Amino acid sequence: MLLRKPDFFALQDIDAIAAAVRERAGDFRPRVGLILGSGLGALADEAEAVAVIPTAELPDWPVSTVPGHAGRLVLGRLASQPVMILQGRVHYYEGYTMAQVGLPVRVMQRLGVEILIVTNAAGAVNPEFVPGDLMLITDHLNLIGMAGLNPLRGPNLDELGPRFPDMSRAYDPDLQTLARQVARQRNILLREGVYASLAGPSFETPADLRFLRVAGVDAVGMSTVPEVIVARHGGTRVLGISGISNKANLDGSTITTHEEVLEAGKVITPKLLALLRGVLQALP
Ligand code: HPA
Question: Label partner for 141 (CA 20 to 30 A): which of 88, 172, 209, 221?
Protein backbone atom coordinates (compact mmCIF):
# COMPACT_ATOMS: atom_id res chain seq x y z
CA MET A 1 0.00 0.00 0.00
CA LEU A 2 1.44 3.33 -1.04
CA LEU A 3 0.14 6.17 1.08
CA ARG A 4 0.94 9.60 -0.28
CA LYS A 5 0.88 12.25 2.37
CA PRO A 6 -0.38 15.74 1.54
CA ASP A 7 2.24 18.46 1.08
CA PHE A 8 -0.36 21.18 1.10
CA PHE A 9 -3.79 21.89 2.58
CA ALA A 10 -6.10 24.36 0.89
CA LEU A 11 -8.32 26.62 2.94
CA GLN A 12 -11.35 24.42 2.24
CA ASP A 13 -9.51 21.35 3.62
CA ILE A 14 -8.68 23.25 6.78
CA ASP A 15 -12.21 24.59 7.08
CA ALA A 16 -13.67 21.10 6.70
CA ILE A 17 -11.72 20.02 9.79
CA ALA A 18 -12.73 23.16 11.66
CA ALA A 19 -16.36 22.38 10.81
CA ALA A 20 -15.93 18.82 12.15
CA VAL A 21 -14.58 20.26 15.41
CA ARG A 22 -17.51 22.70 15.61
CA GLU A 23 -19.92 19.81 15.19
CA ARG A 24 -18.59 18.43 18.48
CA ALA A 25 -17.94 21.64 20.34
CA GLY A 26 -20.96 23.65 19.26
CA ASP A 27 -20.47 27.39 19.43
CA PHE A 28 -17.59 27.16 21.94
CA ARG A 29 -14.94 29.54 20.65
CA PRO A 30 -11.36 28.92 21.86
CA ARG A 31 -9.14 31.95 22.35
CA VAL A 32 -5.94 30.18 23.35
CA GLY A 33 -4.48 27.11 21.66
CA LEU A 34 -2.15 24.84 23.61
CA ILE A 35 0.12 22.19 22.16
CA LEU A 36 1.47 19.76 24.72
CA GLY A 37 4.87 18.17 24.28
CA SER A 38 6.19 14.71 25.07
CA GLY A 39 5.31 13.64 28.59
CA LEU A 40 3.29 16.82 29.21
CA GLY A 41 -0.12 15.55 28.08
CA ALA A 42 -1.49 15.33 31.63
CA LEU A 43 -2.02 19.10 31.51
CA ALA A 44 -5.09 18.50 29.35
CA ASP A 45 -6.79 16.70 32.26
CA GLU A 46 -6.86 20.00 34.12
CA ALA A 47 -9.24 21.64 31.68
CA GLU A 48 -12.99 21.73 32.25
CA ALA A 49 -13.79 20.03 28.99
CA VAL A 50 -16.62 21.03 26.68
CA ALA A 51 -15.58 18.48 24.05
CA VAL A 52 -12.89 15.81 23.87
CA ILE A 53 -12.21 14.69 20.31
CA PRO A 54 -9.91 11.79 19.41
CA THR A 55 -7.95 13.29 16.52
CA ALA A 56 -8.27 10.01 14.59
CA GLU A 57 -11.96 10.92 14.15
CA LEU A 58 -11.19 14.16 12.31
CA PRO A 59 -10.74 14.25 8.53
CA ASP A 60 -7.10 14.52 7.36
CA TRP A 61 -5.82 14.92 10.92
CA PRO A 62 -2.32 13.42 11.31
CA VAL A 63 -2.35 10.86 14.11
CA SER A 64 0.53 10.75 16.58
CA THR A 65 2.50 7.52 16.63
CA VAL A 66 4.77 8.36 19.57
CA PRO A 67 4.40 6.92 23.10
CA GLY A 68 3.55 9.84 25.37
CA HIS A 69 1.34 11.56 22.77
CA ALA A 70 -2.33 10.72 23.22
CA GLY A 71 -3.93 12.15 20.07
CA ARG A 72 -6.82 14.14 21.51
CA LEU A 73 -8.22 17.60 21.12
CA VAL A 74 -9.67 19.01 24.29
CA LEU A 75 -11.85 22.10 24.06
CA GLY A 76 -12.85 23.71 27.30
CA ARG A 77 -11.80 26.13 30.00
CA LEU A 78 -8.47 26.32 31.77
CA ALA A 79 -8.02 29.05 34.37
CA SER A 80 -11.31 30.41 32.99
CA GLN A 81 -9.88 30.98 29.49
CA PRO A 82 -11.54 29.23 26.55
CA VAL A 83 -8.80 26.91 25.31
CA MET A 84 -8.22 24.28 22.67
CA ILE A 85 -5.58 21.78 23.74
CA LEU A 86 -3.78 19.44 21.39
CA GLN A 87 -2.63 16.45 23.37
CA GLY A 88 -0.33 14.61 20.99
CA ARG A 89 1.28 16.66 18.27
CA VAL A 90 2.86 15.01 15.27
CA HIS A 91 6.45 15.35 14.21
CA TYR A 92 8.26 15.33 10.90
CA TYR A 93 10.24 12.24 11.93
CA GLU A 94 7.05 10.18 12.11
CA GLY A 95 6.86 10.43 8.35
CA TYR A 96 4.41 13.30 8.19
CA THR A 97 4.93 16.24 5.88
CA MET A 98 5.59 19.71 7.23
CA ALA A 99 2.10 20.69 6.01
CA GLN A 100 0.65 17.96 8.23
CA VAL A 101 2.77 19.05 11.19
CA GLY A 102 1.40 22.58 10.83
CA LEU A 103 -2.21 21.57 10.17
CA PRO A 104 -3.46 21.65 13.80
CA VAL A 105 -2.37 25.28 14.10
CA ARG A 106 -4.26 26.15 10.92
CA VAL A 107 -7.40 24.57 12.34
CA MET A 108 -6.92 26.48 15.59
CA GLN A 109 -6.62 29.72 13.64
CA ARG A 110 -9.85 29.01 11.75
CA LEU A 111 -11.63 28.30 15.03
CA GLY A 112 -10.63 31.73 16.35
CA VAL A 113 -7.49 31.03 18.38
CA GLU A 114 -5.52 34.27 18.88
CA ILE A 115 -2.73 33.01 21.13
CA LEU A 116 -0.77 29.77 20.76
CA ILE A 117 1.08 28.32 23.72
CA VAL A 118 3.54 25.69 22.52
CA THR A 119 5.32 23.38 24.90
CA ASN A 120 7.91 20.72 24.26
CA ALA A 121 10.39 18.44 25.89
CA ALA A 122 13.91 19.52 25.06
CA GLY A 123 17.49 18.58 25.75
CA ALA A 124 19.61 21.17 27.54
CA VAL A 125 22.47 22.42 25.44
CA ASN A 126 23.13 25.23 27.89
CA PRO A 127 25.32 23.57 30.56
CA GLU A 128 23.58 25.50 33.37
CA PHE A 129 20.19 23.91 32.69
CA VAL A 130 19.16 20.71 34.46
CA PRO A 131 16.38 18.18 33.82
CA GLY A 132 13.12 19.45 35.28
CA ASP A 133 13.83 23.10 34.44
CA LEU A 134 11.38 25.22 32.48
CA MET A 135 12.75 27.43 29.71
CA LEU A 136 10.96 30.40 28.21
CA ILE A 137 11.69 30.30 24.48
CA THR A 138 12.91 33.76 23.50
CA ASP A 139 13.80 32.82 19.93
CA HIS A 140 14.42 29.77 17.83
CA LEU A 141 16.98 28.48 15.40
CA ASN A 142 15.15 27.00 12.44
CA LEU A 143 17.72 24.43 11.42
CA ILE A 144 15.07 22.15 9.97
CA GLY A 145 13.86 25.09 7.86
CA MET A 146 17.34 26.03 6.76
CA ALA A 147 17.62 22.49 5.47
CA GLY A 148 14.57 23.12 3.28
CA LEU A 149 11.66 21.92 5.40
CA ASN A 150 9.16 24.71 5.92
CA PRO A 151 5.44 24.22 6.58
CA LEU A 152 4.64 27.24 4.38
CA ARG A 153 6.18 25.65 1.28
CA GLY A 154 3.68 25.59 -1.57
CA PRO A 155 1.01 28.06 -2.63
CA ASN A 156 0.54 30.83 -0.10
CA LEU A 157 -2.79 31.00 1.70
CA ASP A 158 -3.24 34.72 1.08
CA GLU A 159 -6.43 34.78 3.17
CA LEU A 160 -4.37 33.84 6.23
CA GLY A 161 -1.07 35.65 5.84
CA PRO A 162 1.70 36.96 3.59
CA ARG A 163 3.99 34.95 1.33
CA PHE A 164 7.07 36.07 3.25
CA PRO A 165 6.06 36.39 6.90
CA ASP A 166 8.26 38.30 9.32
CA MET A 167 9.87 36.18 12.03
CA SER A 168 11.75 38.89 13.93
CA ARG A 169 9.40 38.59 16.90
CA ALA A 170 8.34 34.98 16.63
CA TYR A 171 7.76 34.74 20.38
CA ASP A 172 5.49 37.54 21.54
CA PRO A 173 7.38 40.04 23.75
CA ASP A 174 4.30 40.87 25.87
CA LEU A 175 3.54 37.20 26.50
CA GLN A 176 7.19 36.68 27.48
CA THR A 177 6.92 39.54 29.96
CA LEU A 178 3.74 38.04 31.36
CA ALA A 179 5.36 34.61 31.75
CA ARG A 180 8.33 36.15 33.57
CA GLN A 181 6.00 38.03 35.94
CA VAL A 182 3.95 34.93 36.71
CA ALA A 183 7.09 32.85 37.28
CA ARG A 184 8.42 35.46 39.71
CA GLN A 185 5.12 35.70 41.60
CA ARG A 186 4.79 31.95 41.90
CA ASN A 187 8.43 31.28 42.69
CA ILE A 188 8.96 29.17 39.60
CA LEU A 189 12.48 29.15 38.21
CA LEU A 190 12.09 30.10 34.56
CA ARG A 191 15.17 29.80 32.42
CA GLU A 192 15.29 31.59 29.08
CA GLY A 193 16.87 30.76 25.80
CA VAL A 194 16.97 29.80 22.17
CA TYR A 195 15.35 26.56 21.04
CA ALA A 196 16.65 24.71 18.01
CA SER A 197 14.52 22.26 16.14
CA LEU A 198 16.10 19.30 14.39
CA ALA A 199 14.29 16.68 12.33
CA GLY A 200 15.16 13.71 14.57
CA PRO A 201 14.36 10.97 15.46
CA SER A 202 17.98 10.20 16.26
CA PHE A 203 19.34 12.25 19.12
CA GLU A 204 22.36 14.46 18.53
CA THR A 205 25.99 13.42 18.46
CA PRO A 206 28.37 15.26 20.78
CA ALA A 207 29.67 17.10 17.69
CA ASP A 208 26.11 18.13 16.71
CA LEU A 209 25.64 19.51 20.21
CA ARG A 210 28.90 21.44 20.28
CA PHE A 211 27.87 22.95 16.95
CA LEU A 212 24.50 23.97 18.40
CA ARG A 213 26.14 25.50 21.45
CA VAL A 214 28.49 27.58 19.33
CA ALA A 215 25.44 28.69 17.32
CA GLY A 216 23.84 30.11 20.48
CA VAL A 217 21.36 27.33 21.20
CA ASP A 218 20.18 26.65 24.77
CA ALA A 219 17.80 23.75 24.20
CA VAL A 220 17.22 21.28 21.39
CA GLY A 221 14.18 19.29 20.31
CA MET A 222 12.28 17.84 17.37
CA SER A 223 9.15 19.98 17.24
CA THR A 224 7.63 23.43 17.83
CA VAL A 225 9.37 25.51 15.17
CA PRO A 226 7.07 24.45 12.27
CA GLU A 227 3.99 25.14 14.40
CA VAL A 228 5.33 28.55 15.42
CA ILE A 229 5.98 29.46 11.77
CA VAL A 230 2.40 28.58 10.82
CA ALA A 231 1.13 30.51 13.83
CA ARG A 232 3.09 33.64 12.96
CA HIS A 233 2.12 33.42 9.30
CA GLY A 234 -1.51 33.63 10.37
CA GLY A 235 -0.91 36.44 12.88
CA THR A 236 -1.30 34.23 15.96
CA ARG A 237 0.73 35.40 18.98
CA VAL A 238 3.03 32.74 20.44
CA LEU A 239 4.31 31.81 23.87
CA GLY A 240 6.78 28.92 23.90
CA ILE A 241 7.94 26.94 26.93
CA SER A 242 10.40 24.06 26.89
CA GLY A 243 10.52 21.49 29.64
CA ILE A 244 14.13 20.43 29.99
CA SER A 245 14.04 16.66 30.03
CA ASN A 246 17.68 15.77 29.81
CA LYS A 247 21.14 17.20 29.58
CA ALA A 248 22.26 17.01 26.01
CA ASN A 249 25.41 15.07 25.81
CA LEU A 250 28.11 17.48 24.72
CA ASP A 251 31.02 15.34 25.87
CA GLY A 252 29.65 11.91 24.97
CA SER A 253 29.63 10.73 28.59
CA THR A 254 25.91 9.82 28.91
CA ILE A 255 23.15 8.52 26.66
CA THR A 256 19.72 10.06 26.05
CA THR A 257 16.53 7.95 25.95
CA HIS A 258 12.86 8.65 25.26
CA GLU A 259 12.01 7.07 28.65
CA GLU A 260 14.13 9.72 30.33
CA VAL A 261 12.19 12.39 28.43
CA LEU A 262 8.84 10.97 29.59
CA GLU A 263 10.06 10.60 33.22
CA ALA A 264 11.13 14.25 33.33
CA GLY A 265 7.65 15.20 32.13
CA LYS A 266 6.29 14.09 35.51
CA VAL A 267 8.46 16.64 37.33
CA ILE A 268 7.86 19.35 34.75
CA THR A 269 4.08 19.02 34.40
CA PRO A 270 3.06 20.52 37.80
CA LYS A 271 5.42 23.48 37.37
CA LEU A 272 4.31 24.06 33.83
CA LEU A 273 0.69 23.85 34.88
CA ALA A 274 1.23 26.46 37.60
CA LEU A 275 2.97 28.75 35.13
CA LEU A 276 0.36 28.33 32.41
CA ARG A 277 -2.55 28.78 34.82
CA GLY A 278 -0.99 32.03 35.95
CA VAL A 279 -0.44 33.22 32.39
CA LEU A 280 -3.98 32.30 31.34
CA GLN A 281 -5.45 34.09 34.36
CA ALA A 282 -3.38 37.19 33.71
CA LEU A 283 -4.16 37.50 30.00
CA PRO A 284 -5.72 40.89 29.40
N1 HPA B 1 17.50 16.11 21.74
C2 HPA B 1 16.52 16.27 20.85
N3 HPA B 1 15.25 16.26 21.17
C4 HPA B 1 14.94 16.07 22.46
C5 HPA B 1 15.93 15.90 23.44
C6 HPA B 1 17.29 15.91 23.06
O7 HPA B 1 18.21 15.76 23.86
N8 HPA B 1 15.27 15.74 24.62
C9 HPA B 1 13.95 15.83 24.35
N10 HPA B 1 13.73 16.02 23.04
Answer: 88
